[in-house]
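Hello,

Our lab assistant flagged a job as stuck in the queue for most of the afternoon. It eventually completed. Since we weren't sure the result was trustworthy after the delay, we are filing this so someone can double-check. Below is the sequence as submitted and the structure that was eventually returned. Let us know if re-running is recommended.
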Amino acid sequence: MRSLLLIVGVLLLGGCMKVSDLADSAIYQLRDVGVLDHSQTRRASSWRLQADSFIYIAQGHFVPPGGAYPRPNVVAEEAYKGFIEYFPMVRRAKAPLGLEESLAEAREAGAHYLLYSRFAYADDRIGTIEEWEDQEAVDRLGTDRGVIQLMLIETNTRYLVDTARIRGRGGLLTLYDAKPEDLIGPALQDYARRLLGLGR
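-- returned structure --
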């Protein structure tokens, strides 16, 4: 009798939600409890951009504390990959630049906005046998973590349109051979969606 009630309850709940909604909810819960990669974005404003906005993407020279050494221009590269799907007019700097250099290059390119980024924190935990053999520290076992900071600046007026802080945490299922920079791609794509008003 109990199993029959359980089956009826599941069928009733299944009729209230689409399968895709159930899947999205399950993925969200798995991310929240740390089984899958998780990121949290905090924005200073709810400013939205038009889809035809021309955005120039650059990354600062800052080397993040935390013991990891990500590629020098990785945030700009990942932001470019995430933004190109939503903003057709996107360019990025080929190497890390200072803020003034980035603004000058953005103006020269004719961009409406500069997305200036930096890797503020990166903690590359032990995730492979080789890393364990190198470090042999139990307190270094675990999931990778990282924080990136973004500034969206209007190039003509130097007006700070938005700032964002994205905090990423690896998941238990993606622990093996992962790096903090592996966490930032989906979060930056989500930020691009939010700028268009499509995200959460």
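-- support follow-up --
The delay was a queue issue, not a problem with the job. The result is valid. Residues 37-195 form a domain with the Rossmann fold fold (CATH 3.40.50.800). Strands lie at 38-43, 55-59, 90-92, 113-123, 145-154, 160-169.
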